[in-house]
């Protein structure tokens, strides 16, 4: 992925971003990201419009300049924040030379974590769609990331449900993954239980294309994000 220079001009918003008025593009803020305090720039209004986290910090026009001084996200990886800005301005977390298949699975997962932690439903939905595109193309379900997902998400999280439902609905024989000690260390028992419960709820298997059509079930829809067509 290309590296953004500290003084790189701020881009024009993508067509998927629909600011309610031009004032959202007037103010630019600097955000220090990661332990090295890498500086990124973005329009304050767009940050507030698309992410509840930034709206809470920068949403008050009267004191936003005071609030944004020293704004830092030290626990966020600069690469993940840069992908957030790619989505914010261009509607896609993938760089020009990337596809849903080529981008690292852990990168997608950390983009999902960022979107959920910072209240960015549009980015959340985009990451879900990218995961589904990856599954549809590779026909591989991302079980090797199960523990990472379970450690960092609550019960019922959409990404958890997507993984569980994909295994349950497409006929995977899940009990077999617990046959060896290595398998038992790789997967949480709660994950296996979730899949078995889902299999009981959905005894009939479906094909990959039909499963991908269920994408809306794993989206977040609020006043900012319209329901799927």
Explained architecture:
The chain is mainly alpha-helical and 229 residues long. 46% of the residues lie in helices and 6% in strands. It is built from eleven helices and three strands, in the order E-E-H-H-H-E-H-H-H-H-H-H-H-H. Strands 2-1-3 form a three-stranded mixed sheet. Strand 1 and strand 2 form a beta hairpin. Helix 5 packs antiparallel against helix 6. The protein is elongated and about 55 Å long.
Strand order of the largest sheet: 2-1-3
Radius of gyration, taken over Cα atoms and rounded to an integer in Å:
19 Å
Largest sheet: number of strands, sense, barrel closure: 3 strands, mixed
Tell me the span between the first and last alpha carbons: 32 Å
Q: Bin the helical content.
A: 40-55%
**H-E order:** EEHHHEHHHHHHHH
| Count of DSSP H/I helices | 11
**Coarse shape:** elongated
Tell me how many strands there are.
3
Q: Average pLDDT, to the nearest integer?
A: 83
The unreliable regions are: 2-17
DSSP strand content: 5-15%
Secondary structure class reads mainly alpha
Could you give a quick summary of the protein structure above?
This protein is mainly α and 229 residues long. It has 11 helices and 3 strands, in the order E-E-H-H-H-E-H-H-H-H-H-H-H-H.
């Amino acid at each position: 992925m290309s590296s953004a220079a500290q003084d790189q001009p701020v881009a024009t918003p993508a067509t998927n971003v629909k600011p309610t008025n031009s004032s959202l593009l007037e103010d630019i803020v600097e955000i220090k990201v990661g332990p090295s305090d890498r500086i990124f720039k973005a329009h304050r209004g767009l940050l507030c419009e698309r992410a509840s986290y930034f709206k809470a910090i920068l949403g008050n026009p009267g004191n936003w300049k005071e609030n944004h001084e020293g704004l830092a996200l030290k626990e966020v990886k600069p690469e993940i924040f840069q992908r957030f800005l790619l989505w914010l301005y261009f509607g896609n977390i993938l760089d020009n030379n990337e596809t849903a298949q080529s981008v690292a699975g852990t990168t997608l997962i950390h983009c999902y974590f960022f979107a959920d932690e910072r209240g960015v439903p549009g980015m959340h939905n985009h990451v879900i769609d990218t995961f589904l595109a990856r599954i549809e193309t590779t026909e591989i379900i991302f079980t090797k990331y199960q523990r990472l997902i379970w450690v960092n998400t609550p019960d019922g999280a959409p990404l958890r449900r997507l993984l569980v439902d994909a295994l349950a609905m497409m006929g995977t024989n899940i009990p077999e993954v617990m046959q060896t000690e290595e398998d038992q260390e790789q997967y949480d028992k709660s994950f296996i239980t979730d899949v078995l419960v889902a299999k009981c709820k959905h005894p009939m298997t479906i094909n990959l294309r039909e499963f991908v059509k269920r994408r809306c079930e794993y989206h977040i829809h609020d006043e900012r994000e319209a329901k799927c067509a």
